[in-house]
Design a protein that fits this description.
Layout (H helix, E strand, L loop, with lengths): L1 H14 L4 H30 L6 H24 L11 H18 L4 H4 L1 H8 L7 H24 L7 H39 L3 H23 L16 H18 L3 E8 L2 H8 L1 H9 L4 H5 L5 E6 L2 E7 L3 H16 L14 E7 L6 H17 L5 E3 L1
Parallel strand pairs: 4-5
Antiparallel strand pairs: 1-3, 1-4, 2-3
Length: 394
């Protein structure tokens, strides 16, 4: 009981402040600290069991570097110095420290590398708290590059039982797993951030929060449930990397529930590539695939962080616009049309420009997702009837 009380006291003193945001950052850091301690304990146990050939000098070097690095991170967060950075939690820095230490361990041990590689995945998932897609990709690439250098060093001075085929296979598996985890993790973080921004935009007064609390909590639970299922469901289109139609419809249902409790407007755009079949036939399948993949850049170049784009099927794409109005929806459609029209595709004839037609509609009272999507489809038909490279809203 005394030990438990002491541990709770230290936790309260070390990782709690009067600033709730600082406390959250310090508690996230405590998880990183815990993972490093567990790793050292496992390494110590493996040394005693003879599983890894790690000397005491190497063990204390790793422990010392980890302690020094984490101490700097802790002091930077605790003192408030880390607030000068875009991520005051220094999440990426903590991950890079863990990746570097694990890479060093891999460079000096043999026989158990396959098991230790799982540590990279554990470190990447720590980034769920904060990292965006660019930072996630950087961390994953850093790990892949580190292990590649380990293999390269072994080639110059091969250790006993070194098998380059096994090492390259492990590197390939690590690359696929790391980049997949980074991709999924970044999307989870992006959707979580988008949900928070949507919620903040809906809240205008304390009375409104109190009146709508039960409805919003129910909708949020359903959306959180959908987020938890992302790791188990195939929600992405293989070619473009965008979400597929099933995931779009699921997200639309959640946004409609939020909109009905807050009286906010929800807009949907449906995009069709003009003469896509003719382009694919004349320019080749490679050109068609390149055109479809270019829509993965629409989110970064044309949409807000709270907006959502998916491949709806074939050469059609759908965009979900929370908290939208007629003007915002039309402006978004114009940005997308101009953006696609300005792209120079390597695989198609020089000077040839791709055009799109766009239909759009805003959610009406007592309307569900099926009715909304039907109206958007009819709007797209009207846009194409008026001529190519048009947009029409209902």
């Amino acid at each position: 009981m005394m030990g438990l009380g002491l541990r709770e006291g230290l936790n309260s003193a070390l990782f709690t402040t009067h600033d709730s945001e600082q406390t959250t950052r310090l508690r996230r850091f405590s998880l990183s600290l815990y993972l490093h301690v567990v790793g050292l304990v496992i390494g110590l146990a493996a040394m005693f069991m003879g599983v890894i050939n790690l000397s005491w000098r190497e063990f204390w070097l790793i422990a010392g570097v980890a302690a020094a690095s984490l101490s700097v991170i802790y002091l930077a967060i605790r003192s408030g110095f880390s607030r000068k950075f875009s991520d005051p939690s220094l999440t990426l820095a903590q991950m890079l420290i863990g990746i570097a230490l694990l890479t060093y361990v891999l460079s000096i041990v043999q026989g158990v590398r396959g098991g230790l590689l799982n540590g990279y995945v554990l470190i990447v998932f720590f980034g769920l708290f904060r990292l965006d897609r660019k930072e996630y990709t950087f961390a994953s690439a850093f790990a892949i590059l580190g292990y590649s250098l380990v293999i390269l060093l072994d080639l110059f001075s091969p250790p006993p039982n070194f098998d380059i085929k096994i090492e390259l296979f492990q590197l390939s598996v690590l690359s696929v797993v790391m980049l997949s985890c980074a991709y999924i993790g970044a999307d989870l973080q992006g959707m979580r951030s988008g949900l928070k921004e949507s919620r903040d935009g809906l809240v205008s007064s304390h009375k409104e929060i109190t009146r709508q609390r039960d409805e919003l909590e129910s909708a949020h639970r359903e959306l959180q449930g959908a987020l938890r299922q992302l790791g188990q469901l195939a929600v992405r289109d293989d070619l473009t990397g965008l979400f597929n139609r099933k995931q779009f419809e699921r997200t639309l249902e959640g946004q409609i529930k939020i909109a009905k409790t807050s009286k906010a407007r929800v807009g949907v755009l449906l995009i069709d590539i003009d003469n896509f079949s003719e382009l694919s036939n004349t320019q080749g399948r490679k050109a068609g695939d390149q055109i479809l993949r270019s829509f993965s850049e629409v989110a970064r170049s044309c949409l807000r962080r709270t907006d959502y784009i998916a491949r709806f099927g074939g050469d059609e794409f759908a965009v979900l616009l929370p908290n939208a109005n007629e003007a915002a929806m039309q402006d978004c459609a114009d940005r997308i049309r101009v953006f696609i029209g300005q792209i120079n595709y390597d695989s198609i004839e020089e000077g040839l420009r791709v055009t799109i037609s766009i239909g759009g509609a805003l959610l009406r009272d007592k309307e569900g997702s099926v009715q909304l999507l039907d109206r958007v489809g009819q709007s797209l038909v009207s846009a194409k009837e008026e001529g190519k490279s048009h947009s029409v809203s209902d």
